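step 3/5: co-fold with beta-D-fucopyranose
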Amino acid sequence: MSTLRFPQGFRWGTATSSFQIEGGADERGDSIWDEFCRVPGAIVDGSDGRVAVDHYHRYPQDVELMASMGLDTYRFSVSWPRVLNPDGSVNRAGMGFYDALVDALCAAGIRPWLTLYHWDLPAWLPGGWTNRATADAFADYALRVHDALGDRVRVWTTLNEPWCASFLSYAGGHHAPGHTDPAEAYAAAHHLLLGHGLAVKALRAADPGATLGLTLNFTPAYPADPDSAADVDVVRRVDGTAHRIFTDPVFRGEYPADVIADAGAAWPSGLVHDGDLELIGAPIDVLGVNYYTSQLFRAGQHSSQPTPHPAAPDAVAVDRPELPRTDMGWEVTPDAFRDLLVGLHRDYTGPAGIPLAITENGAAIDDPDPASGPIEDTERIDYLVGHLSAVHEAIEAGAQIDTYLVWSLIDNFEWAFGYTKRFGLVAVDEALNRVPKASAGWYSELVRTGTLTLPERA
Ligand code: FCB
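step 4/5: write tokens
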């Protein structure tokens, strides 16, 4: 039996987000996701986040679960419309919830890792992320949260997956607010990055010792036929708006010229003001990587359907039927994860002298109902073993990676898929009781030993 040992001091944990788990909706303001859930047909099962898994009321139990698993780190997000009122004042009860959560984590010896924005934007901000003023509002909000929690929270992520909050939400129409306008998506992407830059500046001034970063999602794109110039070009354009539009301003202080050229008339004139890129490109201390899958594309007919890849309306996703898939339909491709991490270290974080942290990785599996007995989620364990091997290979190849967080601690509201997809190490029954799956026990053992056991290969 072969084993892989992770470096001494490597940090292990799980991740969640506010809207997906908290519920407690009567005790906060509306977010754009509350509004989106009310749009008929927007959520496949017609569900919403009003109760979710009721973490708002059951957080002590969830912290206890993590402590019993021996987890080192918990990445959670703060709900902006819970902690601030529409007039900008602090909602004391809402902030008090996070205060108590952070206290409970610290008491359990779990490092709190706070994400400021995981998509639940207050519904009352006019124009959402298409409005430059939202970036300023975000920096104010960041400081308010820091005032309350900064004495105990030492790791801060500004944004979770700005690609989803811009292109998937304002061009693809799949996420709140469900718009399908490429110009809005480019504006949202820039204003999200500007919000990140303004928040980093404000937090840095308030707390020079804090660890600050942002989390990007990466779905490496490959040409179906590497010898086809058209396929290669489609992949360049997908990669431009999915990844490089975020990595390059953050690490190099500039938007890639090809991305702006490909956007053409959809790039709003006057979008980028003097000084924006200096703010966005200010040093960060860690890059969070969320990884689930990779994708093959070929160049096809130009489609006029809404797409989250507005520079590539001719991109056609090509299936690889030989690969296993998760319940999301996502192909399982751990080698692409390893190559991604090595490439990010080489091109971005290595030169910046900062580590990578895996802030999300995990699998939706169609688990049986918890009422029918213990959940033996071996497919999820296999997925995690494969992807942790990839992380280990990347470390061996020289990539600096110091943290791995499973998405997710617990089954939850999976955005437009409602409660139909299960990513948790822990299931939730009808009565909202927590029921650990086999993967929770497996992960706990890995965390305890820092050693991954690989299955025998035939
Ligand atoms: C990521 C999100 C997270 C969850 C997982 C499955 O894109 O950050 O909230 O939905 O995907």
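step 5/5: annotate
The longest strand covers residues 211-218.
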